[in-house]
Specification:
mainly alpha
């Protein structure tokens, strides 16, 4: 796939909107991130896995802005506990994407993300507070986060559910979320590059095999400006959202988008 084939007027317009929303999600409303990644998949229709990989460097640009603003509020102990299960999920996600076609992974991501969000809603309503501190629950959320972030950059839904279950306030939510996704997204680059080479050797057609390649990083330069603009805008939005509704608002945005991913993948 050449850059000229990918950068049509349609992909540029939709891609710029998606990139702007990525910036907004990183510094203001994390729930928008899943929708932004969905838009990028829509922009590069027929090359969904490549679009998923192309988003990653843009996410890292947004992560850097978020880390700059919120790093002091990161819950480091919580992140350390998540590292092992997330690493397991990253490996599982890489194996899965090596075996998947473009038509399969959107439905998988949507089902995983919406399921964990629905569980968090039920857990909160039923008052199952002890589950949030259980080791199996942490491993489930961490492994799902690692898996879904490789498959479709959809770990925001899972992390939002887990951070909500840990009772993080607005500041600690944003600080922990910022550092978590910076580390995760940087880790994904070598895995996605390797996945492309593995798929080619497995006999996948060129378009189906491309997850991340040199063109990915050229596209980053094309879309970096709206990410930064979105990051500035997101900071303003963050300050305007009241503390009491911040986490429920983020969870609701992620759930709506996850359900939409499931529905859109079926039609």
């Amino acid at each position: 796939m050449s850059l000229a084939e990918l950068t049509t007027p349609f992909t540029l317009v939709v891609g710029f909107i998606a990139a702007f929303l990525i910036g907004v999600s990183k510094t203001g409303t994390p729930g928008v991130g899943l929708f932004a990644c969905l838009l990028m998949l829509f922009a590069f229709r027929g090359h969904e896995m490549f679009a998923s990989g192309a988003v990653v460097p843009l996410l890292i640009v947004g992560d850097l802005a978020a880390v700059h603003f919120y790093r002091k509020d990161c819950d480091v102990k919580l992140l350390k506990r998540l590292c092992p299960p997330v690493a397991l999920g990253l490996i599982c996600g890489t194996i899965a994407i090596c075996c998947m076609k473009n038509s399969q992974f959107k439905l998988t991501v949507g089902l995983l993300a919406s399921s964990i969000l629905l569980f968090e809603f039920i857990r909160g309503k039923m008052g199952w507070t002890k589950i949030a501190t259980n080791k199996p629950f942490r491993w489930l959320c961490g492994a799902l986060a690692g898996t879904t972030t490789i498959l479709g950059n959809a770990a925001g839904a899972v992390s939002a559910a887990y951070f909500s279950s840990q009772g993080l306030d607005k500041k600690r939510f944003m600080g922990t979320n910022a550092v978590f996704f910076f580390l995760v997204n940087v880790s994904k680059i070598p895995l996605m590059l390797a996945a492309t080479q593995i798929k080619l050797r497995m006999g996948f057609e060129a378009d189906e095999a491309q997850v991340m390649n040199g063109t990915t990083f050229i596209l980053t330069a094309v879309f970096i400006a709206p990410v930064l603009l979105g990051g500035y805008t997101g900071r303003k939005i963050y300050k305007a959202i009241p503390e009491k509704i911040f986490v429920p608002f983020i969870l609701s945005l992620n759930f709506i988008t996850a359900v939409y991913i499931v529905v859109s993948s079926l039609f």
